[in-house]
Amino acid sequence: MNRRNVIWPLFVAGVTCLAQEHPRSAQELSRLEELTAFQDEDADYESLYENLLQLIAAPVDLNKASAEELGALHLLTQQQIEALIQYRNAYGPLVSIYELQAVRALDLETIRRMQSLVKVNDPQSIIGRSLLERALFERNSYLITRYERTLEHKAGNDHAADTSKIFKGSPGKLYTRFRSAIPGDYSLGFTAEKDAGEQFRWSAKQKQYGFDFLSCHAQIRNKGKIKNLIAGDYQCQFGQGLVLGGPFGLGKGAETVTTARKNNVGLMPYTSVNESGFYRGLAGTFQLHRRISITALYSALRRDGSEQTGDERNVTISSLQVTGFHRNDDELRTRKKVLEKNYAAVISYNRGNLDAGVIFHGIRFSDRVQKKPTPYNQFVFNGKTNVALSMFVNYTHSNFNFFSEIARSQHGGRAVIAGVLTSLHKKFDLAMLFRKFDPHYHSFYANAFAESSQAQNETGIYWGWKYTWSRRYSVCGYMDLFSFPWLGFRRYAPAYGHEWLLKFNYQPSRKTTVFVQAREEKKARNTGAAENLYRVSNGTRRNFWFVLSCSPAEKLTMRTRAQFNTYSLYGSTTKGMVLLQDASYTVGRFQCSVRHAVFDTDDYENRSYVYENDAWMSFSLPAYDGVGLRNYVLLEYKVSKTLSLWLRYARTRYIDRSEIGSGVEMIAGNTRKDVKFQALITF
Question: Minimum mean pLDDT among 23-27, 45-49, 637-641: which range?
């Protein structure tokens, strides 16, 4: 049968089924909430959301994506990935995303969720064209300019009691980003940002040229033996993240099965504005043999750090700063004080269902890192250099995908992760994972599956599962048992804990979805000190969610959400709740999104983080804490095919306080208002 005769009706059906999707911003909101089933204080949400938005901004090319790159989407099971690759091998490159409906293992709902994360490039568009021609004439570039500010004055703006804490710059935040890219081919771009309160200045002595933070990169891919080459700022992800963890470590709270395993996505351009956690220099992946490749990287980057000086020959670093703020004299004293050099190599072997490799990573600081001694940080890293070495093995057999990595750092600490993903039935998926990290294991760029924010001082066993009755019904959940053999922050004793989650999904129609979720986490916490003796008790946090999304009219999307929290510690229980209503309406080129939220929490332990709709490639994740109301309005207008504009206004009013925030962020009064304007040019 002629392939075109099969694809054409699928294309028509795809247009009918997919073209009526919600606007892109609503898709992104839904996708981001799916990948973070709850919000907790331990996660770095700024990095998480930024990297998810990068994935949306640079969709994966379905015709070139490897199994590892498809797995990094955290949408497809191992069966679905293999089915897609087999289809591609049998029939050749896909001609449209709608052709995915011909892959038997893929259902329409999965294809919907993939839509904003993947693309199919027309092979004819790049044949016979040079890299320069593709960069100049293909419609694959965009420029974002954004301005935002809080309308109220903060203490740091002009009336801080300590003059060293007064902000030196304007209260507005400026941001701009340019990127030109074709997935699997090339990427060029830069990012610049000035935070609110920072100065816009030119000073070679202070290493600032206009914006406080500047980042750029140039990348080429798949040029003969050169599989990937990046100059500038970049990140990388190999193995299970014990040594080179990379950005995509969703862990618990995301998809309960697929995110247990990290994927070897390799080298990636860095386009975020987080001023730490990336490399600056040169990196490349080279194909030495059909089955063997080598990746090498070198980085030299100045980081923020607090110095302690005994004399000119004895300078130590007491802490490495990660906030990225340089607004006043106190913060400017830490700016780019530490020179950090990184060098690493990865040798990978790939043969059929086997993917294995060895990772080496070294780091060197310009001065000795010496943390202030406390009861819980006796195993923290101290010194100028650290080396970590690991080996990873991934193997697929039938419906089973085995993955593992074992690592050792310079001071003898070890870390290990081993697990399996499997589809025991076409409707039932399962993940199991074991992890063990020594207290004295050190790796500055690790981002592994863990209960804590670092791969250190932890042992745990995780089970995740998902059962799909039909297109309408599915249920998923996980159980995680963990222990901490040494003391920790706010926990001055070894401890055990557990966490479980249960989520029920119901989709009665294409325009309506409902999910109900319950979660419990029990973890030890200090409860006070008397005569230098701390009492340690298990704190229990419970979260309950109800979310209803529907489209009562073709251009109208509604979302209702109720979230309830409780926190119990040493016989005392506090509570919190959030009720909110979202609505999004589209008329021609104009889209309006609004939210009204009511929140009431007894204390900060019961705060709720709820993702808010925002301008493209931007995000908002405020903590709903205290008693009050929050509203926002987001307006989007597509002036033309190449120009889009956003205007956002958000307002929070508290009824339980007369000032908001503390320190330099303190606002007098009970109301905070924020505005944001963004322009996007595509060309």
Answer: 23-27
